[in-house]
Design a protein that fits this description.
Length: 279
């Protein structure tokens, strides 16, 4: 994947924000996603969509409808889909609990030892993240204003107040990022999150609703009718570039050959554009 990234010319930048994203030939990755090959490949999929954009919504809607029909039949006739949900929730919950216990201890230690320069700097960045989350800021933000607010909090809050603020507004974010990284490192679980998000995109975020720990929600899909295809393709790209063969076969089995072949052909077409650019 590194060679493909280099050939494409897409830039990767560290990003001190809540959500990694792609925009205008740049992939912005937060402190955890920079270590997560699944997320990097997902955002690269969004970059691929920008290569000679074309209107394929009508054709995609056709194969999407077939995929929904296949999903329904498979949901009724076998337990693979429900088994996937149970497996995903189990592995995510176990890793999340493990990471939460360790992260709570890290928060306590960081605040107790905040006089040291290293811990103070870490704490300062963590408070900034908590402020962004408290204000529901997921995209661009005013860096100077954020730093000022974070500094005011650190100077005015007691250690107990600061710890409570972080636990309410930063703890789950930190744990979520760490959990995703750990799952992505394990060859048995690395493709599960992208697969769940892909299946969710077939129903515009309504597949299993809030029961899935990793998916774009319904309100996200309401913003743009093209998001269903774009997220499906980004997730498919992640599975392809990370060689998640087991999950790819589940896509084919659950959603059908026509849907799988549609995404696969589109993926190969985009990759070929990158290869052609280099000649």
């Amino acid at each position: 994947m590194n060679e493909l990234l280099e050939k494409s010319g897409v830039k990767i930048k560290n990003y001190h924000g809540l959500q990694s994203r792609y925009n205008n030939n740049v992939i912005y990755l937060n402190e955890y996603d920079i270590h997560n090959s699944m997320v990097i490949a997902h955002e690269f999929g969004h970059y691929l969509l920008d290569l000679d954009r074309e209107d394929i919504k009508e054709r995609y809607d056709e194969v999407k409808k077939l995929a929904q029909e296949n999903f329904t039949k498979n949901f009724i006739s076998n337990d693979k889909i429900d088994s996937l949900k149970r497996t995903l929730n189990k592995v995510f919950s176990l890793e999340f609990s493990k990471q939460k216990e360790m992260t709570e201890k890290e928060f306590d230690k960081m605040i107790i030892s905040s006089e040291s320069t290293n811990n103070y700097d870490k704490l300062y960045l963590l408070v900034q993240k908590a402020v962004l989350n408290y204000n529901h800021v997921k995209g661009e933000y005013n860096k100077e204003q954020l730093e000022k607010v974070a500094l005011d909090i650190m100077n005015s809050f007691s250690k107990e107040q600061l710890l409570e603020f972080l636990k309410q507004n930063a703890l789950d974010l930190e744990v979520y990022g760490k959990t995703n990284v750990e799952l992505s490192k394990n060859k048995e679980t690395k493709g599960l999150l992208m697969l769940s998000d892909l299946l969710s995109s077939i129903y515009d975020g309504e597949y299993y609703g809030a029961e899935l720990p990793f998916h774009h929600d319904v309100n996200y899909y309401k913003k743009n009718p093209n998001y269903s295809f774009e997220e499906a393709f980004a997730n498919f790209t992640s599975l392809k570039l990370n060689h998640c063969e087991k999950e790819l076969e589940l896509v084919r089995f659950v959603l059908g050959n026509e849907y799988y072949n549609f995404l696969d052909h589109y993926f190969n077409t985009k990759i070929q554009k990158i290869e052609t650019k280099q000649r």
